[in-house]
Amino acid sequence: MPIEEGASTVLQSRPRGGFNATATFRLRVVEGPDAGREFVLDGTQPSRVLIGTSPACAFRLSDRQISRRHASIDVVPEGLRLTDLGSTNGTWANGLCVFDVRLHGGELVRLGDNVLRVEVVAMPAEHPTTLAMRFGRLVGASPEMRRLYPLCERLAATDVPVVIEGETGTGKELLAESIHEESAREKGPFVVFDCTTVAANLLESTLFGHERGAFTGAVAARRGVFEQAHGGTLLIDEIGDLDASLQSKLLRAIERNEVQRVGGEKFVRVDVRVMAATRRDLDKEVQAGRFRDDLFYRLAVARIELPPLRERRGDVQVLGRYFWEQLGGTDKPIPEDLLRRFEEYGWPGNVRELHNAIARRLALGDLAAMERSRALDPAPSQAPGADVIKETLAMDLPFPAARQRVMNAFERGYVERVLAKHGGNVVRAAAASGIARRYFYVIKSRQRPGGQENE
Ligand SMILES: Nc1ncnc2c1ncn2[C@@H]1O[C@H](COP(=O)(O)OP(=O)(O)OP(=O)(O)O)[C@@H](O)[C@H]1O
């Protein structure tokens, strides 16, 4: 939805040919109960800034007409992305009620009785955009990644909890490990606990440990992941999958730095930095009451959203060359035509999929490339989902919901196809496609359009 610029409020005009990666934005409340308050968004901020009255919001306002989590703002290549988070009284930009909109600076945004002006200001000299091509083991030279590195460096120098969000294969675990390795805890353990891979009845004892005889089969006492990570960092992966009773136990462990083993009476002190990763939109989970507000507030002291590979400008090339060398393709450079094809592909499995595609190409040579090119470049007549696109367009959904619907259909089609090719063997199909196995199950379990799918 186009929003007109109010020229008088723009401190620095929008750069021609796209967003200037060194620009910084300021949100200033110019009218209403919070008049005078302001918030600066630049590369040193978490990627998504929440606005609302909840303490979890980075830009917290007091107006009672504003919802607890009213709207979010992301810095995107074209400027800012303003998204209403299902607020009661709506989000308005230049007089229009908006759901999800791009801002370039100069707009007037109304939330409740407050009117905010979006201003573009120059990047302060003390926050230069880094030219670094990587942070720790995380490689990437796109502006979308480079703007995250200063924040990652700052986070490595602190001990605060971090929530890392992003699609599968975007490097959430690698980023958490890199922050750990760059931090003062570097010599301590880095422990990953994935909430989706442990049976529900063993989750608590895996997290907090158990005493001997605590339950049938507990023949010896065992430390949980908190104790194992003592002196280091614990990454809780897919935290959005944790059920409510464990969420409160987790909150207690993080707040008090102590855990109680299942079947135990005493509390064990732990010194652990906690990070959490999720593919889900935690804001939505909180809003829907599935994730505790206070745990979210405690964990999301800092938030980093890793962009999908398709949105990292130039990184398919950078990572393609990097993986080619790393995986042993040192006698000749990666073929340019392969790189060109890679650049045109959408990479639903993100960096993991690119890594696997290069490993396969190096291992199998042109044979694999031919097979793969069919998948990367399907003939229009075979393109899956043409009907779904038509159907979705006819539904007049808001853009994000429509895109999600088409994406779901694509993912489902992809998974069905690769499964068929591997005789229904999920392990082999997941490995071949570069999609994490558990995400495979998630996609498979979605219903077809026309059913009760939650789009
Ligand atoms: N920027 C990067 N530079 C180098 N390697 C990367 C980068 N991002 C991801 N990788 C590699 O891609 C693979 C997937 O990364 P990782 O497991 O960290 O993703 P993830 O987001 O945690 O995935 P999932 O949500 O499926 O668990 C790993 O082999 C990792 O080393």
Automatic annotation (TrEMBL):
Keywords (A to Z) from UniProt: ATP-binding, DNA-binding, Nucleotide-binding, Transcription, Transcription regulation
CDD domains: AAA (cd00009), FHA (cd00060)
UniProt-listed InterPro entries: AAA+_ATPase, AAA_lid_NorR, FHA_dom, Homeodomain-like_sf, P-loop_NTPase, Sigma_54_int, Sigma_54_int_dom_ATP-bd_1, Sigma_54_int_dom_ATP-bd_2
Domain of life: Bacteria
Entry annotated with the keyword DNA-binding: yes
Pfam families linked to this entry: AAA_lid_14, Sigma54_activat, Yop-YscD_cpl
Residues of the Sigma-54 factor interaction domain: 138-363
Residue intervals of the FHA domain: 49-98
SMART domains: AAA (SM00382), FHA (SM00240)
Keyword hit for ATP-binding: yes
Alphabetized PANTHER family for the sequence: PTS-DEPENDENT DIHYDROXYACETONE KINASE OPERON REGULATORY PROTEIN-RELATED, TRANSCRIPTIONAL REGULATORY PROTEIN
Name the record gives this protein: Sigma 54-interacting transcriptional regulator
